[in-house]
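Q: what does this look like with 3-hydroxy-3-methylglutaryl-coenzyme A bound?
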Amino acid sequence: MTMPNYVKIVEVGPRDGLQNEKGMVPTEVKVALINQLTDAGFVNIEAASFVSPKWVPQMADGAEVMARIQRRPGTLYSALTPNMKGFEGAIAAGADEVVIFGAASEAFSQKNINCSIAESIARFEPVAAAAKEKGVRLRASISCALGCPYQGEVSVHAVVDVVRRMRELGCDEIDIADTIGVGTPGRVQEVMRAAAAEFALDRLSGHFHDTYGQALSNILASLEVGISIFHASVAGLGGCPYAKGATGNVATEDVLYMLHGMGIHTGIDLEAVVRTGDYISQAIGRANSSRVGRALLTKWAAASDAAPACI
Ligand code: HMG
Ligand code: MG
């Protein structure tokens, strides 16, 4: 299998990255974050969630965020939609892509969306049909594809079963998500190959949280089996409110540095993303979790200290 020469990065920082923040992040900060990411060249940004505000209060201002961002033609702004209520909110807000999110683990499905896997598919059916009718792109995310915080081991068979159900709903893209970052490269390749037996390889993506420090290795392992879409979060922001202890997604800056270093194109300006990572980390008072971000910011600061002062 040859490595892809172009990789699509789905920037999930504004949604997955911020949803778990305890203090409310002001709407204008979310809007500024998305605008900066747009300017950096992303073709797909996960911008909001239309979920119950009682479950995830941080995402309650999704409609306002979507109304205020400056959209760039060619960039898709996605929103999470667990049911028809969420779908209607996302469409009214002008989402270009709706994301149904299920799990390969029954226990996580109950904790995250308050229903069994089978019930979740039944809820997604009208969402999928409505997305098709409106001509809106439909993506599905499958949580706990490499392990579950409640039930532990998740079989490859369980993942494949949900992939098949999502395919039957007509999904355009399916995310294999390591919600708690426990996967290692061999198992990731096994899961990706099994998923690719059921769904087009070029429309499968890897969504890796970096809790155990395996995310970059898992991306490389996925590239080796031909996966060419990855999710990442600027400054490594994030965590899932229903997966305690899980840290953020792999940092976008780190993924870009690796891919560009391998000669793989993304169309994204790494330096602009590093500046965005610095902006959002400072705006929400968090340490920047991107190794590449920290390294480049330190290097730039040293270079500007060394520059002769202007008189
Ligand atoms: P429920 O309580 O079973 O739903 O929650 P319900 O239909 O019985 O409704 C209860 C209340 O919620 C009602 O309001 C509804 O109107 C309201 P009330 O009458 O009590 O005032 N409601 C909604 N409000 C706004 N938007 C909606 C909506 N739906 C119902 N769409 C539900 C079921 C799915 C809604 C709930 O469990 C929920 O919102 N869960 C959110 C889960 C979530 O957002 N998790 C984080 C994102 S997933 C993730 O991070 C994983 C991912 O990154 C991949 C990975 O890493 O694994 C994608
Ligand atoms: Mg996630």
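The first strand starts at residue 8 and ends at 11. The beta strands are 8-11, 44-49, 76-80, 97-103, 137-143, 173-178, 204-208, 229-232.
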